[in-house]
Task: inverse folding
């Protein structure tokens, strides 16, 4: 009987530790996914600035769909063609207010983008909000959707 009591006491004492480890492991997986997305997004930005179609091909999912800052809808083949032909080119892209939310094998990334570039000879809107969706397939994160909003509304200023 003493043995059963000792085993029960040990189980009761260790149970919270096991639950804590499970939560810690989940948080670590989430943090790891967020770090991977941050790195991939920086790679994507550099690939766009340098019109690196090979890098973009690795980052974008085959079924990618994007709505650019000019409102143009593009599939992955169209994006690659526009960058290699220089119809779409960026001199600079910066992001701010980035928020990454992890849902298992899906990540939603939101934030603000400031861009200098041209889309078919016309300047792209400089300041935008964006939403990107990343999905982990076969152990690799891929960008499946990218949407830019219209110009960011400026707060009302009193005169």
Result:
């Amino acid at each position: 009987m003493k043995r059963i009591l000792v085993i029960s006491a040990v189980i009761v004492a260790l149970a919270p530790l096991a639950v804590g480890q499970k939560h810690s492991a989940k948080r670590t997986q989430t943090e790891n996914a967020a770090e991977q997305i941050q790195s991939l997004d920086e790679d994507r930005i550099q690939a766009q600035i340098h019109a690196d179609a090979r890098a973009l091909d690795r980052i974008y999912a085959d079924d990618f769909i994007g709505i650019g800052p000019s409102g143009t809808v593009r599939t992955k083949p169209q994006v690659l063609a526009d960058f290699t032909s220089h119809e779409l080119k960026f001199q600079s892209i910066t992001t701010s207010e980035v928020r990454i939310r992890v849902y298992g094998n899906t990540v939603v990334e939101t934030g603000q983008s400031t861009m200098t570039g041209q889309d078919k000879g016309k300047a792209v809107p400089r300041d935008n909000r964006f939403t990107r969706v990343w999905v982990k397939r076969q152990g690799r994160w891929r960008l499946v959707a990218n949407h830019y909003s219209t110009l960011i509304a400026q707060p009302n200023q009193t005169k």
Notes: Strands lie at 60-67, 73-75, 88-103, 106-119, 122-123, 127-137, 140-151. The mean pLDDT is 85.
